[in-house]
Amino acid sequence: MSDSPAPSPDSATPKPGDGTAARTLDERLERNGMRFEAGVLEQLVARSPEDPELLAALAQSYAVLGEHGRGLELDQQLVTLRPEDDTFRYNLACSLCLVGELDGACGELLAALDRGYRDFAHLLADDDLAALRADARFGLVRDRMASLTREH
């Protein structure tokens, strides 16, 4: 047993007026709202399993909740439904990156660019793609963006 004094029970307690308690409550409420939204969307998707708008909204909810595996499944389903949609390909690249599948993410990002995705600023800033941007494979994406920029 240690002779040092026990930590004060108040040391981890938010101090009045520091805003910590309010921020924590806001975060919990927002997360609960997202869980509720995901639950509603799950019910709607169960009734309309091939509705791309519902699938995309549910995939986004899962991404915000950090349920990347579930979001990945939906993004794969969306690309199966609409293989030429550049945004669905981009979102699939993000989901693949979030689960550590950088080869697949790079391939889908290139496919998105080939199908017309041109929001380069977003691509270069998107936190979901941070791991890919830090990887040498991202050079392929940069090269493709550069060639697309030269074409126009």
Topology, pairings included?
Layout: H1 20-47, H2 52-65, H3 68-81, H4 86-98, H5 102-114, H6 120-125, H7 130-133, H8 138-151
Q: Overview of this structure, please?
A:
The protein is mainly alpha-helical. The chain has two domains: about 20-80, Serine Threonine Protein Phosphatase 5, Tetratricopeptide repeat, CATH 1.25.40; about 90-150, no CATH class. It has eight helices and no strands. It has helices at about 20-45, 50-65, 70-80, 85-100, 100-115, 120-125, 130-135, 140-150. The longest helix has 28 residues, at about 20-45. The N and C termini lie far apart (about 70 Å). Mean pLDDT is about 90; it is low at about 1-10.
Number of strands: 0
Number of domains: 2
Largest sheet: none
Question: Could you tell me how far the N terminus lies from the C terminus, measured between alpha carbons in angstroms?
Answer: 72 Å
